[in-house]
Sequence to fold (62 residues):
Amino acid sequence: MSQSPAKEEVVLSPCVGVCALDDDDVCIGCWRSGEEISRWGYLDNAGKRAILKKVEERLKNN
Fold:
């Protein structure tokens, strides 16, 4: 009997419910760009992790 592959953990949205874009088109709540926010629901986990990495960089540089 073979085991089924482990399910990949879902990458959760960093949204905190403070939805306001600054002058650079970056949300002041979750630090994603407007484009990243609009694409989030269509991305696979790898794409979501790539955005979260960009968010980390924005936080470091802020």
Notes: Residues 20-62 form one domain. The chain has a mean pLDDT of 92. Residues 32 and 44 are 16 Å apart (CA to CA).
